[in-house]
Design a protein that fits this description.
The protein has 415 residues and is of the alpha/beta class. Helices cover 41% and strands 17% of the residues. The chain folds into two domains: 230 residues, Rossmann fold (3-Layer(aba) Sandwich); 179 residues, Glycogen Phosphorylase B (Rossmann fold). It contains 16 helices and 14 strands. The longest helix has 21 residues.
């Protein structure tokens, strides 16, 4: 069985070979799955990515063939060039796959099925869905129209940078995504949310549940109440208004009188250069939280796992998510989690047993859920244990690989 994967982002080894190093790139979940799948004697694997700032390259490492399609450094994430489609077609002709497996519907890869450029079965793993993400009230989160304007720098507009350009690119990408989803032969998903949405786009395609693998660092370490920094929150991916960072900051302002030592550690990029990053930093200052927030920047998996064990609560306040890896990693470590009731998150954690769910954008309830964990040690321990138990089952490597191979065999038996 020959399977060719298409990935939205490069795996670490692809970024290292075709760029300036692996730091700052994603693709870790794909890398973990590839390591397990490529060890199977009955499967030959190739991985393709087209990514801004990398150069064209092709190489083999271990039992995997890698193909990188270089794009200009500031190429919009959701844009498409005909030259990139042609290169994908050349790679398919060279590799001759039995199955084409596209990880994510957000980029252009599925267009070669929609345009009739291949007769090979195409299946798509659902990550996020641009059709949901690109709705204005979700994309801009809690921001008012005035705040949207304030979060854009004038210098960004002529060079196609900033939130407004990102929004327009996402809207265009959503139109293309609808065509891609409608033409797929099948879908691999993880939640009731993505199952429902794929059924709307393509009711005749098959759907298989296939989980994700996490990086080993999050399975080697466990949170404990005794060793955490009390009243400390940790949050990742705060660099977009869709993540609801403003709501978390407002909740902290409500809690500060009761917990004067409250802290927030933000992992990921909150830039001092782009308009939205500057907006977030101004909001922190205006709420009097400058001494309460620590910016961790980009950190690797080992460091992130340690940071999770240092915190008292993990929060995710997004307006839409499918099954975010950041939440999955926090749950696997056993850290008590407070998360938005949105998208696929309710299927990941049971309210009151493996985490606390919060209505999207509801700042008082968000603050109260954090307060409950800060005040109640028994609840914190219960939620942490429930989270790690649920995550251990959901991300078990043998289970996930078995689910994937069952999906591949279903594709081949249908031919």
């Amino acid at each position: 069985m020959r399977v060719l994967w298409f990935s939205n982002v490069p795996t670490p080894v692809m970024a290292q070979r075709a760029g300036t190093g692996s730091e700052g790139y994603g693709g870790h979940w794909i890398d973990q799955l590839a390591r397990h799948v490529s060890a199977l004697s009955k499967l030959e694997l190739g991985i393709v990515t087209a990514y801004p700032g990398l150069r064209d390259t092709q190489f083999r490492e271990g039992d995997i063939d890698y193909f990188v399609i270089g794009q200009p450094g500031r190429f919009p994430a959701f844009a498409m060039r005909s030259a990139d489609l042609d290169k994908c077609a050349d790679i398919m002709d060279q590799f001759k796959p039995d199955i084409i497996h596209i990880h994510g519907s957000e980029r252009f890869y599925g267009m070669f099925k929609s345009l009739g450029l291949t007769e090979t079965p195409v299946i798509i793993s659902i990550q996020g869905l641009l059709g949901s993400f690109s709705k204005a009230h979700i994309f801009f989160g809690a921001l008012s129209f005035r705040e949207i304007i304030e979060s854009c720098r004038l210098i960004e507009l002529p060079v196609r940078l900033g939130l407004l350009w990102q929004f327009l690119d996402a809207r265009r990408g959503a139109i293309r995504e609808a065509k891609i989803l409608a033409s797929a032969d099948g879908f691999l998903g993880r939640t009731a949310w993505d199952h429902a949405h794929t059924r709307v786009y393509n009711p005749n395609a098959f759907y298989c549940h296939v989980g994700e693998l996490l990086r080993p660092a999050f399975d080697r370490i466990r949170w404990s109440l005794e060793n955490c920094d009390r009243h400390t929150l940790i949050y990742t991916n705060a660099g977009h208004p869709n993540r609801g960072t403003e709501n978390l900051l407002a909740a902290m302002a409500l809690l500060r009188d009761e917990f004067p030592d409250i802290k927030l550690r933000l992992a990921g990029t909150v830039s001092t250069r782009n308009g939205y990053g500057r907006f977030v930093r101004r909001r922190i200052k205006s709420l009097g939280l400058s001494d309460c927030v620590e910016f961790l920047g980009y950190i690797d998996d080992e460091t992130m796992a340690r940071e999770l064990t240092r915190a008292h609560v993990f929060t995710i306040t997004s307006y839409i998510e499918n099954s975010p890896n950041s939440l999955a990693e926090a749950m696997q470590v056993g850290l008590p989690c407070v998360a938005s009731f949105t998208g696929g998150i309710p299927g990941m954690m049971q309210d009151g047993e493996s985490g606390l769910l919060t209505p999207v954008g509801d700042i008082p309830v968000l603050a109260d859920n954090i307060r409950r964990i800060f005040r109640d040690d028994e609840l914190a321990v219960k939620l942490g244990r429930g989270a790690s138990t649920a995550a251990a089952v959901r991300h078990n490597p043998e289970t996930v690989v078995g689910q994937l191979m069952a999906a591949y065999n279903r594709v081949l038996s249908a031919e």
